[in-house]
TrEMBL record:
Gene: thyA
Top-level division of the source organism's lineage: Bacteria
Keywords: Cytoplasm, Methyltransferase, Nucleotide biosynthesis, Transferase
Binding site for dUMP: 25, 180-181, 220-223, 231, 261-263
Record family assignment: Belongs to the thymidylate synthase family. Bacterial-type ThyA subfamily.
Localisation: Cytoplasm
GO MF annotations, alphabetized: thymidylate synthase activity
Lineage per the UniProt record: Bacteria, Bacillati, Bacillota, Bacilli, Bacillales
Positions of the catalytic residues: 200 (nucleophile)
Protein name in the entry: Thymidylate synthase
One Pfam family it belongs to: Thymidylat_synt
Length: 318
């Protein structure tokens, strides 16, 4: 059994056996624990789960979106990535400019009412098309506020200056790999009201030893079934990219979660996944002609040898 799937499935079992039922912002309900850590050895393979298919291209395009400092979903839609659509859609449907049918609580209602789901899908398609083709609409309703890309690349300091935290980390690794300040923080208390979704993975830190780069990322809140497999793979790609630019090998990826939860409408899916036997982990291949991580595009990051079980569908709690 590969250790990445085992480590993740152990967490799922632990929550089901020891978690507490809690209400949540979305109204869905969760089984939750507080405080959990997992470690993944990146030398043993790329930690993309094999007990269900996880869409690697979506993970990479989202990460590149962050690294570009972008906060508008247009880039994601251009790359057929819809994982942030609901947040921009909510912004539009709650505005005075929206004139369509009532979309209040669309996340839950679309799961429970097929007739409403048809209306929801129609309005969502209108939203997507307008973001792609209407610059003014995209600027107003495609932008999600000062989310990850803004905080990573253009952090606003109390001194009025902006700071590129990713570039700082790269420069420091090259200059002083023993630094204990190789840290990026996405949680800006003064900007929470200007973010469509406050950061869930709010901080990460790098560590260099024996020519290997390790990363620890921290999450305040984590949807274990849908979100966590993406988060693990995304920070693994980021670690590979920064190690590449800095001339290092990869070491460990460490996850630290606070409110770690399984949504009540994901329990059946989790149980299905727990019944599956893990398979060999894939690897990733980077375009070595690209020197800066900011020059990478989707086609420069290749997944090799991925042979997972089939995907398992589940609704997103918005």
């Amino acid at each position: 059994m590969n250790q990445a799937d085992k480590t993740y499935l152990d967490l799922c079992k632990y929550i089901l056996e020891n978690g507490t039922k809690k209400e949540d912002r979305t109204g869905t309900g969760t089984i939750s624990i507080f405080g959990y850590q997992m470690r993944f050895n990146l030398q043993e393979g790329f930690p993309l789960l094999t007990t269900k298919r996880v869409p690697f291209k979506l993970i990479v395009s989202e990460l590149l979106w962050f690294l570009k400092g972008d906060t508008n979903v247009r880039y994601l839609l251009e790359n057929n990535n819809h994982i942030w659509d609901e947040w921009g859609f909510q912004k539009w449907t709650e505005s005075d400019e929206y004139k369509g049918p009532d979309m209040k609580n669309f996340g839950l209602r679309s799961q429970q009412d097929e007739e409403f789901n048809v209306l929801y899908q129609e309005q969502l398609k209108i939203y997507q098309d307008k973001v792609l083709n209407d610059d003014e609409f995209a600027a107003k309703f495609g932008d999600l506020g000062n989310v990850y890309g803004k905080q990573w690349r253009s952090w606003e300091g109390a001194d009025g200056k902006t700071y590129d935290q990713i570039q700082y980390i790269i420069n420091e690794i090259k200059r002083n790999p023993d630094s204990r300040r190789l840290l990026c923080n996405a949680w800006s208390a003064s900007e929470l009201d200007n973010q469509q979704l406050p950061p869930c993975h709010y901080a990460f830190q790098f560590y260099v030893v024996d020519g290997k780069l390790s990363c620890m990322f921290n999450m305040r809140s984590n949807d274990v079934f849908l979100g966590l497999p993406f988060n693990i793979a995304s920070y693994a790609v980021l670690t590979h990219l920064i190690a590449h630019e800095c001339g290092l090998k990869v070491g460990e990826l460490i996850y630290t979660g606070a409110d770690v939860h399984i949504y009540s409408n994901h329990i059946e899916q989790i149980n299905t996944q727990l019944e599956r036997e893990p398979r060999k982990l894939p690897t990733i291949k980077l375009n070595t002609e690209k020197e800066s991580i900011f020059d990478f595009e989707l086609e420069d990051i290749e997944l090799v040898g991925y042979n997972p079980h089939g995907s398992i569908k589940a609704p997103v709690a918005v």
